[in-house]
Design brief:
The protein is of the alpha/beta class. Helix content is about 35%, strand content about 20%. It has helices spanning about 15-25, 80-95, 105-110, 115-125, 135-145, 155-165; strands at about 5, 35-40, 50-55, 60, 100, 130, 150. The relative contact order is 0.23.
């Protein structure tokens, strides 16, 4: 049972690193399941749109909702998140080699979101890699105990870990991908 996590400091950095990793895995002929987040800047707002790509070849789902410029609440669209969760569950059942989840976030900390999918992957002995932030770090460790392996927020490091889990090193010739 393998679960690893990574935490980058900059806003959206973890998302970019996990997206790059997923692209490398796909280019190498692997079939990762899960979701990676791609943020799109908006010209009419200081906040970005948040989209997730369902892996390996699923749809892109907008998981943010526009609440207006002065809104202070959470912009996550729970229905869109649950759609991504359902699609990920289906993909996991079709033989995933590795599960990548963009973030162990508030919903996962509260027992919702991708939490059950992560548990199912671990029960199926599918390696799991999640993005993590300081806000939900304590809840993550309450969930996984001492099983979580810290990985540097670097796509080459994540690729090496994924290659080890997949029992074959991935080619670093794709580093420019």
């Amino acid at each position: 049972m393998q679960i690893a996590y990574t935490m980058a400091q900059g806003r959206g950095d973890t998302d970019q690193i996990l997206h790059q990793l997923s692209q490398r895995l796909l280019a190498a002929g692997h079939s990762p399941s899960g979701v990676v987040q791609v943020n799109s800047e908006r010209s009419d707002s200081c906040r970005c749109d948040m989209d997730v790509q369902v892996l390996p070849k699923g749809p892109v789902i907008r998981i943010s909702q526009s609440l207006g410029e002065n809104a202070r609440g959470c912009r996550l669209d729970p229905a869109a998140l649950e759609e991504a969760v359902a699609l990920t569950e289906r993909a996991l059942q079709t033989g995933a080699e590795i599960l990548i989840i963009n973030k162990f976030g508030k919903h996962e900390a509260e027992g919702r979101g991708f939490r059950a999918v992560i548990g199912e992957a671990l029960a199926l002995e599918v390696p799991v890699l999640v993005g993590l932030n300081q806000l939900n770090r304590e809840a993550f460790f309450e969930y996984v105990g001492d099983l979580g392996i810290a990985l540097a927020p670097d796509v080459d490091t994540l690729e090496a870990w994924a290659g080890a889990q997949l029992c074959q090193p991935l080619s670093h010739t794709m580093s420019a991908a």
